Here is the input.
Amino acid sequence: MEKFREVLNLHLKHRNALGYCLVSLLTAGGERIFSTTVFQCPCSAAWNLPYGLVFLLVPALALFLLGYVLSARTWRLLTGCCARGCGAGLRGALVCAQISATAAVAPLTWVAVALLGGAFYECAASGSEVLARYLCVGRDPRCAAQLPLVPCQQAQAPDVKQLQKELQRELTAQSQVLGWILIAIVIIVPLIFTSINRCRSPVSYMQLKFWEIYLQQEQQIFKSQATEHATQLAKENVKCFFERSHPQERNTPSIKDWQKISSLYAFNPKEQYYSTLHKYVNKTQESQSSTSSEEGATVPVLGFVDSSDMNSTTDL
Here is the structure.
């Protein structure tokens, strides 16, 4: 039991990093399966380019949209947006950029692994007239005609076969170089932005750790209390239905109350609130009438506050 507790604590402490690693591994595995079992380049001058680009980019787009769908912050921002008015301006753009950066992990992994494999790029590039003019400079006059057939290696004559092998090696090298460049960008750019965000953090390292612990506990307790309250309310309503009686009056939050604790978190250095719920219960009735966008600003390093979700917190 103690070992299980240690593993669980490790998961809670590093669940974001572990989640990104798991997503990357599953994406890489999925790309390998697609490239070996599903993908078959048509070896046609008209179809190579669109066919290769579809396999390279469409799954990446699907994974990017899936990242948005699975983000708790997306639904916190979107739910009720049409009724109450959506946040706009710099703050809304910053939130969307943060969600996009998180959602981009899987699609960039797909593209990088696909480029390292070379099959999708080789098919797409062999159907490009622009690359054909570049690759065939100083080569055999049959080069442009043979380029679309390179992925299938359909030549019979030895000299043509040798030409196709040379073209294939060059296309594979281009694809792998692009793949490693993309991997370098994916590593360096987030590291730079993370370092800048941490450097500009309004709170210290230990307070951030405390903040994360607080959010885990708040969501866990909120889920427990919400379950208990919903259960009691449901029992009371069912009981009154069968007994034909009037329900007891219960102090349930209003629509306005729910909207206030569902809004995106805005940091105010003059206050020390760790969530919108924390801010709500400590505000006076007068101060609650102002909107959160007027009370603070979105800070990138504190984006995890809105990313917390009740269903993502493991019950202890």
Q: What stands out?
A: The chain is about 70% helix and 0% strand. The chain has a mean pLDDT of 81. The longest helix spans residues 158-199.
